[in-house]
Amino acid sequence: MDELPISKAFTLLEPGPVVLVTTHDGRRDNVMTISWTMVLDFSASFALTTGPWNYSFAALQRTKECVIAIPTVDMIDTVVGIGTCSGKDTDKFAKFGLVREKAGHVRAPLIGQCLAHIECRVVDFIERYGVVVLEGVAAYMDAGRRERRMIHAIGDGSFVVDGRRIDRREMMRSKLPDGL
To answer: Could you read off the pLDDT of 152-176 as tens digits, one per residue?
Structure first.
């Protein structure tokens, strides 16, 4: 085996799909790309990493709500583009032609082009690690959308795309907690 610099170890543990997180700060909508997300348990609890370096962070702190929008591989250039400019001086919805859709429980919008959405409330900030803990309050899936492959960031500017799904639900059924 070849040694990998410890500073690159994070690229071995790809967390979850790249997501777009929408916010509304009381005046306008914004969207940011987040490449580190995590499911916290078998309920609708999630975490993402961000901090004061992201313009949307202030809106998350103030409003304590957002939408996690899940893009698919056909949106890769939009996702990267959103992540390489700031909402401080750019209307990302206009620049990237994003379709705003009204959320049911939060002021942040859904994004019409995305496969799925989770409306969330912020329940904790873990400042030391830049972690925002979220509780989902509603979720939506575009069942008619043909493209469903999600994007996963490696952390070095490259990405992996979901592939073939392998079903082992029956094999695991007796091992999972009741109700799953």
So the answer is: 998 888 899 988 888 988 888 766 5
